[in-house]
Structure formats: C-alpha cells, structure tokens
Amino acid sequence: MGRSFVYVILGGGVAAGYAALEFANKGVAHGELCIISDEPVAPYERPALSKGFLLPEAPARLPAFHTCVGVNEERLTPKWYKEHGIELILDTRVTSADVRRKTLVTAAGETISYKFLIIATGARAFKLEEFGVSGSDAENVCHLRDLADATRLVDLMQASTGGNAVVIGGGYIGMEVAASLVINKINVTMVFPEPHCIPRLFTPKIASFYEEFYKSKGVNFVKGTVLSSFVINPEGKVIGVNLKDGSYLPADLVVVGIGIRRNTSLFEGQLTLEKGGIKVNSMLQTSNSSVYAVGDVASFPVKAFGEIRRLEHVDAARKSARHAVSAIMEPDTTPEFDYLPFFYSRAFLFSWQFYGENLGEAVYFGDFSGTSFGAYWVHNGHLVGSFLEGGSKEEYEALAKATRLRPAIDDMSDLERQGLRFVVTLSQKQPVLPIVDVGSSTSLVVLEKPEYPWHAAAGVVAAASIAAFAYWYGRRRRRW
Ligand SMILES: Cc1cc2nc3c(=O)[nH]c(=O)nc-3n(C[C@H](O)[C@H](O)[C@H](O)COP(=O)(O)OP(=O)(O)OC[C@H]3O[C@@H](n4cnc5c(N)ncnc54)[C@H](O)[C@@H]3O)c2cc1C
C-alpha cells in the first residue's frame, strides 16, 4: 500500500515551507504535492528557536513563526496547506529511498512514490558521543536543532534560574544560546577551543568587540580547551564538566553547540555528494534529473566564488527552495541560481549583516568603540566580502549590492578612509542589480521581540559551528 504524488518534498523545515509557497504561487493542483517530515508540526522558521522562543517573557510560540513569516510572506499554518491541497505527512520518518524507482519508504512501511523529489532534509546537531565523550543524553544536557530541543531547553532554563550553565562551542548556536541564558538570569561560561568566538567569520578584532560586550553581561569565556567528560550524579544529572586543560566547571545545565551533520544518508551511493552535501547544479538538480536538493543539505555552485559551496544560512535555504520549484515547474524560463551568501545576526543591542566571503585581507572602518563599524575583505585586488554592525536598511542594501559587484580595489588605505562611503557611492552609480534581499533583518518581528533588545548571535559562512570544533581533541575535521 502506498501513496503517489507528482511532487514530494522530503523534510519539513525552512526550505520545505518556502518551496511549498512557491509551488502554490506557481499553481500546483490539489493533491499533487506532499511534504514528509519527521517533525510533528508544519514547517517553521528554525532561527526563531534560539531567539524569540527562548525569551523569558512573551516568548514566540507556534503558530506565530511558521514559514514564511521570515520574509514577511504568508504564514503557512496547517490550515494554509489544507486550503491549498498540499498534504502534510507529519511525524513520519523516511527510512529508505530509491531514486531509480522514485520511491520513499517510511518508518511505518508505507511506500510513497513521486515524479519529482525535493530533498530538504537539512542537518542534525553533532553529539559529543561522535567525539568520544559520553553523557550527552543526560536530562540537563541540550542540543538545539528542532522544536523539541528548544522546548526542553526552555524547561531547563526555567529550572536553573540563578544557576550555572556551560555552553560548549563558540559558533553561532553557542553565542545565541549564551545570550538567551543571560537574559534568563543564568550564569554562563562558554568553552571552545579557538582563540575567539565565531572564528570562521570574525577576525580577532571583530570578535573582541562582541566578546567584551558578552563579558560585560557576565559571560565567562574559557578558550583553547574542550570538554573531556561530564560529572554525573547518582540520579543521572550532570553537575559539572571536566575540561581537557584540567579545570572543572559546575553546571546546572549544559548546552552543546558543536556543529551539524547533513542528513544525506538516505541518498549516499545513489546521488553524487560533494563537500558533505548533495551536489546540485545551478538549477538545484542532483545527479538524478528527477531529484532536487535545497537548503542545508545541498552543495550548490556559488557563481560569485566560482565553486561548489554548502551553506548553513536560512536565507540560502529559502532562496534555493524557491528556485528549485521554479526550475521544476518552469524549466525553460528559470535562470541559473545566482546567490550571494548572506548572513545576519542580532545580539543584545547589536545587529550585523555579512555578505560574500571573508577571504583575503580585512580592512576596517567606523568606530569600534561605538555603535557602527564594519570590515571589508579584499582578495586578489577585489572586494569579496563585507560586514557591517549597526547599519541602516539603505546601508545594508548598498553593502549587498557593492559586494556582489566585487569591485577592484587599488588602494587599501583609500578604502579604509572611505569606509561605508565606498559602497554607498558605488551602489548609487550602478544600475539596480538582483541583490540578495535583506528582508530577514526586518522580518523576524514575531520572533525577536523589541522589548528585549537582544537577539541571537548568528552563524557564519559555511559551518561556523563546525569550525568551532574543528580542533576538537586535536582531530581536524574536514572544512566544508
Ligand atoms: C537554533 C537555530 C538558529 C538558527 N539561526 C540562524 C540565523 O540566525 N541565521 C541563519 O542564516 N541561519 C540560522 N539557522 C540555520 C537555518 O535555520 C538553517 O539554515 C535552515 O533551517 C535550513 O533549512 P532546511 O530546510 O535545509 O533544513 P531544516 O530547517 O533543518 O529542515 C530539515 C527537515 O527535514 C526533516 N527530516 C530530516 N530527515 C528526515 C527524514 N529521513 N524523514 C523525514 N523528515 C526528515 C527534519 O526533521 C526537518 O524538519 C539556525 C539554525 C538553528 C538550528
């Protein structure tokens, strides 16, 4: 017994929601499309889990952050799917796939067949066990990838007010959670092996700015070491952690944010993989022409960089999903996917955006003791990346536009002198280009409450959180 659909989206996360919206916009017929997800709820804006969801007062809760509220589009509640004739097959794990036969088999044994498949299986959080440390299944140790994790974290935070939390990992999840814990009146120690936070994006100078701010909020940083074991009481609760440098930290709560692994296993041996993800072309099509891959699980050609990359950005998930649907439904008129990597973050009173890549030499501008500063990255004589803290909407747009142009830089001192003026002037001279939209910065209204002027420190280009543990126990992981 089984069901058959024209289009199947495997995975029910951010990319799935945006793909569904695009299918609806393009006029999919009732009964043609289904989403299969092992989560119990319709697709939602995952970044909310480390932001509005963790607020101590008036926290964001579903249905407020179902996709596609993240870019001020329609909010796709279960009712919306019903009205559009899109079947949500929830709480259902797909356990095997056969791309030759175009079938998926669920844990309950149902076979679901498709004409076109979009793989949107995202990723899962690494566990310490994968690095030889046991104990992360204890009741007061948390990861943060899905709604169940976030709900558990909220319960633990509520039970730990005034207590001690240890955050393992200095990537974006670690930084976001540390801010949330502080807001929830918990003492925080962050432990990571690198010399500074968010090492894949931040330079020491940028990191130092944010770390100083976190310190002013009481966060303690323990750098250059890693967790070696949990200290667990007879009731099975973690009461502290031992670090490899020999020190001990008491803990009422431990949050582990050490990176993610792509959910590719169903397709290994069937589709071409690259850089840890499922390789797609500029139409988001895999090595099997009926199968597309989008979001975190996809490795796609980033034209601006001239190579295949796999990003872990919500913006990339949204846009790749929509593009794949367009490529499936309107193959003759859909252009190649031309994406400029974009990431944003808000923490405490700060807010920043990053475009392009952080390659080459960094040139700083603005006031690092004030509220607005930034950096450009210049590689082989071209501006390839840009970062701005505290910019206006127009300034971020200029930043995106100019970075996409990859302008030649002859004089680094002049670039430094001009600072933000450089991109503003350049963008005014240029015709309007298809830039990455910065909607995400204005979009998370429901997810990030203005009365709490903190938000999550976010991630970086390609696997910042993995980088945070790149040197875990001296074992260098492959950098994707
Ligand atoms: C807490 C948190 C905060 C974040 N904050 C930011 C941020 O501020 N900025 C930013 O750019 N990015 C952020 N991200 C990253 C962003 O959320 C991801 O890039 C995005 O969710 C990727 O979308 P996706 O659809 O590819 O994967 P996901 O959203 O992870 O969805 C994958 C879905 O597939 C399901 N699935 C997997 N395997 C199966 C299977 N075999 N059967 C059935 N279902 C399956 C999963 O359960 C899940 O529902 C954050 C991520 C997290 C976890």
UniProtKB/TrEMBL annotation:
It comes from the Eukaryota. The chain crosses the membrane at residues 452-474. This is monodehydroascorbate reductase (NADH). Keywords: FAD, Flavoprotein, Membrane, NAD, Oxidoreductase, Redox-active center, Transmembrane, Transmembrane helix. PANTHER family: APOPTOSIS-INDUCING FACTOR 1, RIESKE DOMAIN-CONTAINING PROTEIN-RELATED. Residues 7-321 form the FAD/NAD(P)-binding domain. GO terms for molecular function: monodehydroascorbate reductase (NADH) activity. Residues 340-422 form the Monodehydroascorbate reductase 3-like C-terminal domain.
